[in-house]
Design brief:
The mean pLDDT is 90. A hairpin with a 5-residue loop joins strand 2 and strand 3 (46-53). The radius of gyration is 18 Å and the shape is elongated. It has 66 residues and is α+β, with helices and mostly antiparallel strands. The protein is built from 1 helix and 3 strands; from the N terminus they run E-H-E-E.
Length: 66
Amino acid sequence: MADYEYLVLNFGREVQRSDIRRTLTDHAEYGHWELARTRTYVGGLTKTWLRRRIIRARRTYATSGV
């Protein structure tokens, strides 16, 4: 199973959709984030969850005492 790290972005009701789209595009393009979930609440708050896979480095050499 893959491990992910999450980033939650909150946008108020005064933020236009084009600005939200631009922000999410920048995070996806430069930070390698992908859209996990978006919720728009009654008061106009838009909450967006972004995720990206955690890449863990693996040891490539043997640990035997040489």
